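Handout, tutorial session.
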Amino acid sequence: MKRHLLTLAGLLGAFSLTATPAAAASEPHWAQTGTAYTDTLGGGQGLASRADGSLLYRGLASIPLDLRIKGWNHVGDPDIARGHVFDAYQGADTATSKMFAVTTPAGKRYEYVHRLNPGEKLNNSFATVSPDAQWLVSGEWGEQRRLQVFPAPLLNPSTPPTGGDLKEAWQITLDKPVRDIQGCDFVTDTRLVCASNDATGTLFPEIRPLLQVDLPHKLDGQQITGKVKSLFALPQRSVCTGTFETEGVDYDTSSGTLRAQMIPPGVCAVATAVHSYQQVTD
């Protein structure tokens, strides 16, 4: 994930985005239902839906001062499970660990630090919790053939109750490589959607695609292989020209709404587009 330091007021394009990703007739697919905007500095790194339907956003301005002082200078795409907020933090390029912060419904925050395994990248792009609240899934930057799985801090009884060390439990092996995953979220026990910032078109035909990862069964603490496919290219529309950046993704189980973020280029980057989708059948 890139760090954004924004100081200019931007321009927002007034677009009506109604295009529906192509899908075979009678198969459920995601239809775009709208676009909203959020302040990039305060909410451009990710989002998560609360039980009441409101949204929690994360951006560089969201990082608490005490965590910045400890060296945690980047926050990724968050998740909320059973009222607990899960945040993914990373430090400088020389860091040898990454950190997951969990904030309870009562507002108490606990820090779980994972020391990097040999060959593991320092990036901590996102946190998403399995529907049974037992497993925390995260991912690295660059080209990868895996997602990392940890016991969900606080909610999985194998983790310390007040923060501490967090060891990787196992991995989801992907049947094909993915690149620059900015966020993932569970849609069901056996399906994730992931937002990719890959603009090369070499792994999938779409540029900056929304990916789907299907699992053969729910996570159970054992190695598992996920089947990856690209659903559609996330929208890249703005009055400004240049390079876009995909950010977080969220699925609201109560409303069935899928949301994905896209930061526009140039001075327009001051506001992040949040595209909404609902699953429909033709």
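The second record follows below. Compare its token runs with those of the first.
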Amino acid sequence: MNITETSTDGLKREFKVVISAQDIEEKVKGRLDELRQTVQLPGFRPGKVPAAVIRKRYGGSVLSEVLEDAIGDSSRQALTERGLRPALQPKIEVGKYEENGDLEYTMAVELLPDVEPGDFSGIELERPVAEVDDKALTEALERLAATNTTQETVTEDRAAENGDIAVIDFAGTVNGEALPGMDGKDYPLELGANQFVPGFEEQLVGAKAGEHRTVNVTFPEDYPHEQLKGAATVFEVDVKELRKSVPAKVDDELAKSFGMENLDALREALRDRMKQEYASLSRLRVKRQLLDKLADSHSFEVPAGMVDIEFNGIWERLQQELKNGNAGEDAGKSEDELKAEYRAIAERRVRLGLLLSEIGRRNNIEVTQDEVNRALINEARRFPGQERQVFEFFKQNQQALEGLRAPIFEDKVVDHIIEAAKVSEKTVSVEELTRDPDEDQAQAA
């Protein structure tokens, strides 16, 4: 076997590999001899099938296996002998091959860069800390009460407003014809919740209990019912009653509805949960600061192929967002501007990923099987009733399992760096802690 390095360009290497016809024939003959000892053919005793018969029947498939193994073994050998670490699977191009001739192929590979982490003890980080004050706790209790509403009849003489529940009888017709499913009795319709056809609820705002209204609407063109797609429809509606949602009182009864003994117990449980949420937000802020500092202080070439893969994933998600009308800050930007911006983001992510990976390797940071199992259990809990299917999916999908392992590894490496860094604490308001960090940067600029 002859391996020749034909090109060196940054992290890219190309090799020409030649495997002699003699080496190939020796491997083929060895495989056929192994087959001869075990194969059973009519008219021959085991182990006594003539070599010519074995070659005629199995020679083609054995040759294919030998060529495939030879390429795999030689490509690995080319990298191992030179101490090269591929970033991605090498690209193999086999030249024209004729039986009984040499096998020639070229291998293009992109390598992992040499990464030299800096001194973490010089990194300064600021951890924002917010206290759970009485005001925040009271607001949280009120939000909790608002989710535990009851309905009361509107007794005052007033018209329906958005947020009211109008109890209605209704019957609809298209061109004077009543269709199945277009009528109802005592239906509680929350005005402004967009439960019905667009335009229906708006025409009931201002109605009073006991009032009759004729509502004209046009069904959307993409409505799932074929007969109603784009159909102009008339609904005769009787408003029988108006109700309003009333939040529960913040008292012991509210606490008992959430399984707590009394309001004090609910208050303390809520305070503990808020403390955990604040601590989580605080850690995210510190992690972002750290990653920004690591990105600013480390500059090395990254494999273009890895950047392409990361960028393609980002770009695909962005296109879906734009298709759904969620342009956000990207509104008005040209495609070239967007590609340049998101390719830079992809390159930063790849560089940080390689840096964290090297830090983890040097410090023997590993993800245990117990940690992966806990992450898998938490993932399965997101799909009640389908836990078994979730476990089977991850069992059979190594890439998906790596998707659970990767963030655990990243967090462990980040924690390792934070322990070595200089971290000071700064008391901030809840508003500051929960605000998008990008807003803080914009204000600072």
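Points raised in discussion: The domain at 2-110 is CATH 3.30.70.1050 (Alpha-Beta Plaits).
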